[in-house]
Amino acid sequence: MALRQAFVAAASCFILASGLAPDKHRPGHTYTAHEAVHITVNKVGPFNNPHETYRYYSLPFCRMHESLSPESEVLAGGQKHKQALTENIAGDRKETSPYDVTFGDQVPWRQLCDVTLTPDQVKAFKEAVHQDYFFEFFVEDLPMWGYVGEIVGEDLLLGELEGSRTYLFPHLHFKLGVHNDNIVSASVYTQSHRRVDITDASQPTQVQFSYSVEWVNEIKLKHANRMSRYVDSAFLPSSLEIHWLSIINSFVLVLLLTTFLTVILVRVLKNDLSRYTLDEEEGEEEEETGWKLIHGDVFRFPENKMLFCACQGAGAQLGVATALLLGCALAGVISTTKRGSLLTGMIVLYTLTSPIGGYCSASLYRQMNGPQWAHNIVLTSLLFPTPLFAIFLWTNSVAASRGSTAALPAGTIFVIGSLLLFLAFPLTVLGGIVGRNRSREFDAPTRTKKLAREIPTDYPFHRSPLFQMLLSGFLPFSAIYIELHYIFASVWGHKIYTLFGILVLAFAMLLCVTSFITVSTIYFQLAREDHKWWWRSFLNGGASGAFIYAYSFFYFHGKSSMGGFLQGSFFFGYMAVVSFAATLMLGSVGFYSSCFFVKYIYSRVKCD
User: Fold this and answer.
1) DSSP β-ladder status, 133-139 and 39-46
2) Where are the alpha helices (DSSP H) in 56-111?
3) Taken in order 181, 185, 188, 193, is the CA torsion positive or negative?
4) What is the pTM of this model?
5) Quick one: 179 exposed, middle or buried, by C-beta within 10 A (0-12, 13-18, 19+)?
6) Which pLDDT tens digit goes with each residue over 240-259?
7) How many other CB atoms are found less than 10 A from the CB of residue 451?
8) CA distance readout (Å), 163 to 127, 155, 274, 476
9) Residue 205's closest CA among 133, 123, 146?
10) Mind listing the pLDDT tens digit for each residue in 350-397?
């Protein structure tokens, strides 16, 4: 409860700092009979490109209710709503609509406006229909979706044929559900028998926009459960069915393979330790071989240790922030049904966990006798935000140049930038100072020689660094492959992801498999007398990030219907950021696991 209150308080501060406020009727508002119900319009865009969205009134819809008197309380359409930070991040651009809806009053049919569309306006609607434009409305926090129009007689491969017709849906039917004077459900339907033919875009076309309202009693649907219906919405593609069996099958296969490799590694390591111990007890002066031979070089600090320590700190911070985000989502602290809330939560948690990144990086850098600790802390704080800012600058510029709502407003950019600059950076510095002052000497069980030992270059392919890196990335990726598909379908689609219990299980499996496979590859590396394991442990552990980015290409071209320059820029740009974050996070897991393992095995044998 305390965590929930702290998170809400932090989010409220950011909302107030941005000068934004929520809508007039908040969720849970208790209505009286005939009280005005505000229908909010949000955005339109191609259904297959969820991030290519535009303001609703970028299309020539009605802005005024012609049949109402000027004294009516109904607002004109197009007046911008004040929005919360989460809504701006999600690309929402809410505006008022001229629909006259009052609580509990049925409306069989009512004219909104009767207009004559110019050829340019007809062409705009026609192009929208051909691109499968959908629109999004809101009643309180309940979203409603519908299509702008439809095409009859179109070929899926050849497109518009000579006999095909393009139709616009000018009539909307609102169906609103009520429970204890609260609105608990909202849907909008288009009616094909009232469609208007807009095939010929060269001539003006008269269109009568209208609407109807139906109120129903939702006896079984309580207000607290109002979002449950969106999990299986008929408008959204029902491709995210319960997938427990697929996940369990994947986990069992990975668990069996991991157990098999564990048994092999434990037996080989046990034999090594027994042989080395026996030689020491018998006093035999046989020539040392294998990983014991490089005991004087194995704890030689890596090259570019400032960058190495910064990677470990940034990875540890991302790992803790991700774990906290999943925990908050599973516990209900963060709303998982409201788009933008998870991303906002990640921004907040990444900021609050900044001391962890500074502490881990500065502590390790001090153990490596690094002299430039201030530069190390700055590098740690910039390592992940810098590529993220570069990608954001590109995608936001592309979206802004095309008038898309995916471009963040200047106020939101200022709030997030201030958050990272004036809170995350000082916290990283604070954590770095604490880590530097509390750091102890590196506890190496063996002494490091002055001259580095030459590394053998003659080894089979299956022991090469490239092969081990591919193996280290593939096995953890296979543990999350199935779940990754559903996450992609939610993040880069319209479905709402709700199975966070499975996701937490998949995340735990990912960390365990990454830790084990990295330790295994490092052992075989040491066994072939290669003592440069520091960077290799990080790269082997983070290799799954490359597989995730490679999978994104397969998903974009093979599993989705996305297309276009704007959507492609968002998808591949931000997937590069996600893959980089996964590389840092899993690389950090691989290093700390390998470091513990290497210290352990060398502490078990006697070395001169």
Assistant:
1) antiparallel
2) 85-89
3) negative
4) 0.88
5) middle
6) 445 666 667 677 777 777 77
7) 7
8) 17, 10, 82, 52
9) 123
10) 999 999 999 999 999 999 998 899 999 999 999 999 999 999 999 999
